[in-house]
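User: Fold this; tokens only.

Assistant: Input:
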Amino acid sequence: MAQEAAAKLVSEVHAELEVLRRDGPTAAQVAAFVETERRAMETERQHNSYWVTAAMEGYVSRRYTGDVGQVADEANAMWEVRAGDDARMASGIGGWR
């Protein structure tokens, strides 16, 4: 019984993946993903682990020039641009599907 249920789930997942490969995500799926990522980033910024990771990544970044804050600012700016691109893609603005 459990094996049959597992096989059915695997089949359904494969079917959904095929739809995504063929048609791509819907605007609603992209918008939901963007919103989830935005909320996760807001939540992570409230925890020390986010800032420890950001500082460590800043020190090992090729962009590091002695100012970790500058690297963090650049990363945040890139995040904002990316989030804007994702939102435009989700809404179909600017030639995005």
